[in-house]
Write a structure and sequence with these properties.
seven-stranded parallel β-sheet, globular
């Protein structure tokens, strides 16, 4: 096989959760541009249907389905829907995230709700889809974590801006990296690969002071943009990474290496 052909996803079925957000849109684009048939899933079915319709107009095969990641019943219904439509699932990208906390002072019940969706929910997704991939003797799962699952917060980034960063995000993203390794070990003998990507901060018209501070924390001197995750996604989803599993790849402009 030509090495460039190994990056293609033609004939593969991919499932992406949380497709309409900052990272989700470029992940969805990357998967279909590489040739995958794509199922997108999240709580807001209206947004999903609009996104799927736009992508179908560009000639891509995209189907939307509602998902409550805090419900095992909903997760299993999504899996059944995909199997009924496509017969198999080759790629799962766990990108969906719920952010009920605003900062350290948020109610403890918000932390518990976060864990229900972002920790327990991710486990249920990995187990359900992983067991299906194991039956197929192959598949690739990609968990979207964060640099904030690798390093502690730098509160100097937020000084004087009136906002900060919530603790639950660090907790469940750090746990996701470890769960990735667990699942890679558990499912590896069945030919299923499980990897993780930890993106850096995404530029979304934040306060100029914050952007300048953040950029100085990186080697490349900027925040992530609308294209930066696409290559890593296709690499881990495709046969180009056939011998890669259990790893966490920072896509952060060098922030965690500095």
């Amino acid at each position: 096989m030509n090495v460039m052909d190994s990056f293609r996803l033609d004939g593969k079925t991919a499932v992406l959760t949380g497709s309409a957000g900052l990272f989700g849109r470029q992940i969805a684009d990357a998967l279909v541009e590489a040739g995958a048939r794509l199922f997108i899933a999240s709580r807001n079915i209206d947004n999903l249907e609009s996104q799927a319709a736009r992508m179908r107009q560009s000639g891509y095969e995209v189907t939307a389905h509602v998902l409550d990641q805090g419900s095992e019943e909903s997760i299993l219904a999504l899996l059944k829907f995909v199997l009924n439509r496509a017969g198999r699932v080759d790629i799962l990208v766990n990108n969906s995230v719920l952010r009920p906390m605003s900062d350290w002072s948020s109610p403890a019940k918000d932390f518990a709700r976060s864990m229900e969706v972002n920790a327990t929910g991710i486990f249920m997704m990995i187990r359900a889809f992983g067991e299906q991939m194991a039956k197929q003797n192959g598949g690739s799962m990609i968990n979207i974590a964060s640099v904030y699952g690798m390093v502690g917060p730098d509160f100097t980034l937020y000084e004087g801006l009136g906002w900060g960063t919530p603790p639950d995000y660090y907790f469940h993203k750090g746990g996701m990296i470890q769960l990735t390794k667990f699942a890679a070990s558990k499912l590896g003998p069945c030919g299923v690969r499980v990897n993780c990507i930890s993106p850096g901060g995404f530029y979304n018209n934040q306060d100029r002071i914050f952007v300048e501070r953040y950029a100085k924390r990186t080697f490349l001197g900027r925040m992530a943009n609308e294209e930066d995750l696409k290559g890593a996604i296709v690499f881990l989803a495709s046969d180009a990474s056939a011998y890669v599993t259990g790893v966490n790849i920072p896509v952060d402009g060098g922030l965690t290496a500095k």
